[in-house]
Automatic annotation (TrEMBL):
Plastid keyword on record: no
Protein name per Swiss-Prot or TrEMBL: Digeranylgeranylglycerophospholipid reductase catalytic domain-containing protein
SUPFAM superfamilies the UniProt entry points to: FAD/NAD(P)-binding domain
GO biological process: phospholipid biosynthetic process
Bilayer-crossing regions: none
PANTHER family hit by this protein: DIGERANYLGERANYLGLYCEROPHOSPHOLIPID REDUCTASE, GERANYLGERANYL DIPHOSPHATE REDUCTASE
Amino acid sequence: PEDDIGDKACGNVVSTDDLDRVGIRHPKDICRVLKGVKVFSPDRKTVFTINLKHFVLDRRAFGQRLLGDAKHAGVEFSDRTKALAPMVENGKVVGIKTDKGKMLSKLVVDASGFQAVIRNKLLGAERVHGGDTGVCYLEIRELEEQIDPNYFLVYLKGVGNGYCWVTPERKNRANIGIGVQGASNHPSPKTLFYKHVFPWFNLENSKLIKAKGGIVPTRGPINPLYSNGVMFVGDAGCQTNPVNAGGIGPSLAAGRIAGRVVAEVVEEGTDPGEYHRRYMDTHGKQQVALDAFRRFLLEVTDDDLNYTMRELLTEGEIERIVVGRAGAGLWKKV
């Protein structure tokens, strides 16, 4: 439903740089302005502080605002409409089938999230395996006092092969979550939450407001991001930070690139494959490097990662990981 757009299961944090790069005005309906991000080693003895201004979004309000902006720009919104499958003619996608009928289009953009309802019904399109996903569980809790009111907290490993985050929201409310690799035998993130995270932060006297779960891709982007009449954008194109599963910033960047290419295709008849080339040149290469670092994290022990963060990595390198701009030299170093 239209009223639910923006209500997502995520950490709800985006850097001001991510918004500025795509030209989106800073949201008014935010929960908190943060000084930056703190990244903790598994033993929580090594802490890297990245002082980069972030907003904690009222995720639903932000989604509603973007929807309003799109409608104001002329987008025709079809509420309560389910995309069912692509329409293919002579090997090219020419539209989609919905529960309300057919929609023809010169170009289709699949931005349907992790479910990728168009891509997953195309013969030959790349599939995402369970091991390249993160299964998340989060709780919104009212705390006696904030764990850290000024920073988004990220804890690498220490909870199996997963990671944990803490987002301070309004007053003493916090978004506390955990993500684990989505392999076929993955542990329950909710079970790990109560085994590790709950006692870490002494949540016994806190009040549960809401609990959510979800799945996010944690790998390099779909290759190619355009194929035979359809573009894949956001989670449908696996455009997230593979290390911390952050998707708001990368998806905004991908949407901006895709939108410009779509306009050029419609107005000038240019090659829609330019979307793949531009994304890979500006963001995709870093994402591939981060995916290699993610694989390193899955293989390394907690003790090895403690040593790596204590002795090998610098604060600048951790910052590039967090903001999604790490190069291949980073994972070669470790």
